[in-house]
Structures are given as structure tokens and as C-alpha cells.
Amino acid sequence: EYDVEIQETSRRGEGITRIKGLVTFVPNTKPGDRVRIRITRISRRFAEAEVVGKAEEKAEEAAEEEEGEAE
Fold it and tell me: Cα–Cα–Cα angle for 67, 65, 36, nearest 5°?
């Protein structure tokens, strides 16, 4: 499982992200979505995945956001 941010949309309307450079198609997502995915199929040129939940925020990112709001 990977926590990813969807970067763009494919011609078929699926979200696209990259995991270690491998293009990964994720149905029912849109650019900007932060989701946790599970790979369901891997081929030589791309992978397909399903959403299993929302991505967990890293503690560091959450702390930085709170500091920014306090200013």
C-alpha cells in the first residue's frame, strides 16, 4: 500500500500518480486527491491500483501547517 497524491487525469478519466517513476492508474480519483492505494495489476509500462482509504498526513507536514496558521 502507498500513500500518494493524484497528479493528473488519464483519457479514460482515471487519476494518475507515479510510484518510483512507474505510471499508476487509480480509478475514481481526481488531481489533488491524497489517497492510500493498493496495486492490483502491474505491467512493464504501468500499474493499476484501487483506493483503500485516505492518505495519512505525515506528522511533520501537519506540524508545519499548524505553524503557518499561527503566524
Answer: 155
Taking residues 7-21, report their average pLDDT: 95
pTM for this entry? 0.75
C-alpha cell at position 10: 488519464
**Residue 63, φ and ψ in degrees, nearest 5:** -65, -40
**Quick check: 34 and 61 in contact, CB under 8 A?**
no
Interval 25-57: pLDDT, tens: 999 999 999 999 999 999 999 999 999 988 776
Q: Residue 37: enclosing H or E segment and its boundaries?
A: strand 34-42
**How many angstroms separate the CA atoms of 17 and 39, rounded?**
12
Cα 25–Cα 54–Cα 27 angle in degrees, nearest 5: 25
